[in-house]
């Protein structure tokens, strides 16, 4: 990562873009520590996907913790087979009515 003043970025924009496109992040210091970082679209996509994966992992962990602490619902095979013919809303209503649990 390299740091450049805003004026240097402005005066050498094409070269800075080439650096960023090649994978080199560029930090632009600003007052009050409100710095800006230029990164490639590829890097941004990677970071966004990583963030989504972390959130998904946290949801899975919370669900597993809930199951391990006695949470969760159980169904008989005939109930699961009946779900195949139901809409999502019908399943939600069934679970709430029969199990007292809101999906």
Protein architecture, described:
By secondary structure, this protein is mainly alpha-helical. It has three domains: 1-39, 3-Layer(aba) Sandwich (YefM-like fold), CATH 3.40.1620.10; 42-72; 73-103, no CATH class. The protein has five helices and three strands; from the N terminus they run βααββααα. It has helices spanning 6-11, 13-21, 41-68, 77-83, 88-99, and strands spanning 2-3, 26-28, 36-38. A three-stranded mixed β-sheet has the order 1-2-3, with helices on one face. A hairpin with a 7-residue loop joins β2 (26-28) and β3 (36-38). The radius of gyration is 25 Å and the shape is elongated. It starts with a strand and ends with a helix.
Question: Which helices and strands occur, and which strands form pairs?
Answer:
Layout: E1 2-3, H1 6-11, H2 13-21, E2 26-28, E3 36-38, H3 41-68, H4 77-83, H5 88-99
Parallel strand pairs: 1-2
Antiparallel strand pairs: 2-3
Summarize the structure.
Helix content is 60%, strand content 8%.
């Amino acid at each position: 990562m390299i740091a450049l003043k805003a004026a240097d970025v402005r005066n050498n924009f094409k070269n800075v873009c080439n650096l960023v496109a090649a994978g080199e992040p560029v930090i632009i210091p600003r007052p009050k520590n409100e710095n800006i970082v230029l990164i490639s679209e590829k890097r941004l996509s990677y970071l966004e996907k990583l963030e989504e994966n972390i959130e998904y992992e946290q949801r899975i962990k919370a669900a597993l913790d809930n199951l391990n602490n006695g949470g969760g619902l159980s169904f008989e095979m005939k109930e699961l087979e009946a779900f195949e013919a139901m809409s999502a809303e019908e399943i939600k209503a069934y679970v709430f009515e029969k199990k007292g649990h809101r999906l």
